Amino acid sequence: MKVLLISNMYPSREFPSYGVFVQNTEQILLNNQFQVDRIVLQKKKTKLQKLFGYALHYTKIIWSGLTKKYDYIYVHYAAHNAAPLLLLKKLNSRVTIITNVHGSDVVPEVSSQEKFQPRVKQLLKESAKIITPSPYYMSLVKEKYEVKTPIYIFPSGGVNPDVFYPFLDRNEAFEMLKLDPNQKYIGCVSRIDVGKGWEYYLKAIAHLEEATPTFYKYLYIGSGKDEDAFHNLAEELGIKEKIIHFPLLPQTSLKYVYNAIDAFIFPTVREGESLGLVGLEAMACGTPVIGSKIGGLKDYIIEGKNGLFFQPGNEIELAEKLWFFMSSSEEYKQRLSRQAILTAHDYTINVISEKLPRIFND
């Protein structure tokens, strides 16, 4: 089967984690003897680079769709790729599209993204099949667009067990990150952008440390538009000395983070959190997740079994859950850890690799 993979997110040498799940889906198809061509856009630094990048990206989509024959055109991210694909469909009605929707495709994060919604709806209607990352997101798509197109679930390329696994010796993680092995850590991995909940993480830490000073320090791994605001708030709250900030790290380095921390905090407030793959990657390393009760997180976090929930945006409740976890017995923490590993196993590439080819062959 010959497939044209289209995405406006794809890893590069400079940004190895950017759209890595798209690369994972490509590898799954290749491993199953699919022939895959790709038209992808890698991360650009300036607005001008982005403008020219999209112009070339759209031109390639239309040209390839008109001059080459594919069994399927498989697109990740409907919002930013809908325009050229809808035009291509008009010019060549025989093209068959499978659309894999994510995050802001269905739930725009900022008002400027609302303008894409009519095209998203039209693309989903024109698609032969729709792929969503989670049961939550499938329900959201059905409810919002009322499409008759068949909808399938495939968890965003899955967790790579060759990268994410529990270390036998955690000192390796502390050494790689240059952390004190005698110190305890809680951590969060996320962009520092709107909707990611970084401010609630900081405020929860401040509430907890003011009420009951702990032996913990708090990692935050990520970069973004709100980075200055992040550091300003940490200073304003008086917790700057408690925060250890790393820039966005590649996946090969994130495994050290997940193995160094006792719990992973997932404070998102985005209804468009279609799966939350970082939470599953943390679980694969044996790290329980304390997460917002929202989006795709509700599909894999089980309260008191492999993690804990708090209401989105409620820093007081997050502080309470943090303290509950910190003050729990080692036996309880180990039980959460074991269950986290079992949960993540069901999302590993090895387990889900048969699902994507089945969707194409169905």
UniProtKB/TrEMBL annotation:
Domain Glycosyl transferase family intervals: 170-340
Domain of life: Bacteria
Single GO molecular function: glycosyltransferase activity
Keywords of this entry: Transferase
Protein name: Glycosyl transferases group 1 family protein
Species per Swiss-Prot/TrEMBL record: Priestia megaterium (strain ATCC 14581 / DSM 32 / CCUG 1817 / JCM 2506 / NBRC 15308 / NCIMB 9376 / NCTC 10342 / NRRL B-14308 / VKM B-512 / Ford 19) (Bacillus megaterium)
